[in-house]
Each structure stands twice: as C-alpha cells, then as structure tokens.
Amino acid sequence: MKKALISLLAVFALGGIATAQSVTVWTTLADQSLEWLQQETASFSDAFGVEVEIVRLALGELREQMLLSAPAGQAGDLLVGVPHDQIGEMAVGGVLEDMSSYATDSYLADLSEQARLAYTFGGKLFGLPMYVEGPALIINTDLVPEAPETYEEMIEVAQANTNGETFGFMYDINNFYYSYNWLHSFGGYVFGRDAGGDLDPSDVGLANEGAIRGGEELQALRFDYGLIPAGTDYNVANGLFIDGALAMTYDGPWAIAGFREAGIPVSVMPVPPREDGSEWSGFMGVQGVLLNEFSTKKVNAANLAKWLVRPAAQVSLAQLSGRIPASNSAVAQVSDDPIVAGFGAALQNSEPMPNIPEMGRVWQPMANALSVITESAEADVEAALEQAVQEIGGH
Questions:
Q1: Of 302, 360, 333, 351, nearest to 44 (Cα)?
Q2: What's the predicted TM-score (pTM) here?
Q3: DSSP alpha helices (H): ranges in 161-297?
Q4: Which of 64, 84, 142, 152 reaches 20 to 30 Å from 243, CA-CA?
Q5: Which of 254, 266, 259, 268 is nearest to 342 (CA)?
Q6: Separation of alpha carbons 151 and 215, rounded Å
Q7: Which residue has the higher pLDDT, 120 or 242?
C-alpha cells in the first residue's frame, strides 16, 4: 500500500498527506459501476486513512440538491458519475469548483480531446473526465454472422432479416439522443461556436440542409426500407433484441449487460460508412468527478477524485462494467475487449452533447419533430425541423 501511495503522489502531485477527515461522495452510479466505486473508495481509505461515505442519488435530485444545499454546506464533497451535459446549470449556479489546478499536464494529455472539451465550460475545467459513452451498432451475431461493411449493406442485411420471425434493425427512432446520429452525420448540428470557441445558443443548426437530409433518411428507415414499425421505442427494440428476434440495434454500453444475461451473442461497431466513404457521428456523453465549490474538505476530496480517474481505476471500471475509459492509455490496456473496443471506435468521431443550460430546451421540440417526421411518408421534414428550431429559440 505504501508503494501505491508513492505512485499516486508521483502521478498526480497530491496536495499533501490526507488527514483522517471523512469525505462524502454523491453518485448516480448503479449496479457494477457502483460496485466499482465502493471498491475504489475502500482502497483509497486504506491508502490514506480517509473515510468515504457514498450516497446514491438520482441525477435530477443530485443536481437540484447541489444548487440548493451546497452553499449551506449540506451537499456532497465530491460528485461521481455526473454526465457532462448536466454541469452547465451547476457551473452557472456557482456550486462547482474549477478543477484546472488539480489536473496535471500528463493527465490532460492522456485525455481524449472530446472528453476534455465536454467538461470545459466558460474556459474552466469543471470536472475530471472518467469515462465516455454513446451509442453504436450492436449486432446479434447469430442472425448476422458477418458485419456489414457499408451503411447500404447494413440496410440490405436488415431487410433480409425482416420477416415473419425476426426484425432487421430497430432503435428508439423518436429519441433525439439516438437519432442525432443521422441529423449530424449529414451536416446538422445543435449549437454552433463563436469566435472564441464557446457554444453559441443562438446558432441552431437543426434545420439546415444537412439536418433535413438526415431527417429524410430517418423517414426512409421506416417507410422506404420498411425497418422500423410505428410504435417502436426503446423498450420495444431492447426487448426484441433480448428475445433474440432483432438482428441489429443502435444502443449504448448500458444495454450490453442485459443482452449478455439473455445469452445473446453480440458484436459492437460504428454504424458502417456510406458507400461514398462518409462516416457517422452522433452524440457522446462524458462522465467524471466534480468537486463541490463549498466543500470544507477539498484536499481530501480532490485526492479522491484523482484516485478515481487514474488509468488503473479506469481500466478496472471498464473490465467490471464495460465503461469506455476517457484516458487514452487506459483504452489501450482494454483494447483486447471487443465490446469496449467497438464502442471506443464508434465514439472516435462523436460529438459531446452541448453542456450549456440552453441544451435543456432542445429535447422536447426535437422529440416532437421526430415524431412528425416518422409518422407519415408524406410528412414535411423541413417544416418539422424548422418548427423545432423556432421553439428552441435559435436561427
């Protein structure tokens, strides 16, 4: 354990030896990820003599309680497993510590660029990224032994598997989180950036030429290709895949445990490029560790944060729960895991969800637009998307 302490000091340049003061962690993690957190905090306590209390909260409750209770000294010292797109409101509310001074150059250099940008808000680093996540193409290899090499081939394979007994390709098509892959890959975007590189909430690119073309492709999935029946949502697609009746779906690493439990053999890969070589790019999320601005235990809390995001911890999290490390060196250590590698490949070109508070006003208008687009083959894609942008408040 002494060796571990010396190693941690060398890698992270910790701010002094921790005292016996306890640290309270608020987390959204569950299942295997929560088990990992319990193991890592226990090892931290053994190494530094700092007791750690873990309190699990739903994401909305965690965010609300931070805004309300942190200034009064009644919130967790450290927040673990908070998606990057949730930090904007808390950063504006002044309850998050800028962690730039806690992140060493070597740690930042080992991060993927998307992960670093995801936790950057107003030029400050409001968290230490720990893992990344996002959807990829998940294949039932019993039904599709050979992975399609192009998007067009994927459609053909899906159509061949759509018969009286199985379905070829289904996913939660009216969920903007998933369908952004089609809108963005053809040229749409949520928010543009200003001259300084910050997201510009007045510049909404969800009804431009590319987004319209992507919306037409979504419409084609249902009506031209006959792949996604009306009424398909997450539960429908997930349930059919678990039953072995769905050849391919578009989902994230959180779905893998259920598929494995059901005994479904799977492979994971990016949605294959179109025949013209164009690759796909959807949303990615980044989760990490945040520090309470009002914590009176910042030294111990920051040291714990660094412990949780060190490459060895990210590797163990990947091995236990299939999470994709934010650390490039950690990714290299788990590259022999085909599931982790498949999601990692899919996320290479992905775009972090915008982390500004204005993102909250995007979800419902886009859900409405997608519902219109996929309701009828004659639906006006351009009009539906323009209506959404008007409701969002951009131009």
A1: 302
A2: 0.83
A3: 176-185, 209-223, 234-242, 256-261
A4: 152
A5: 268
A6: 16
A7: 242
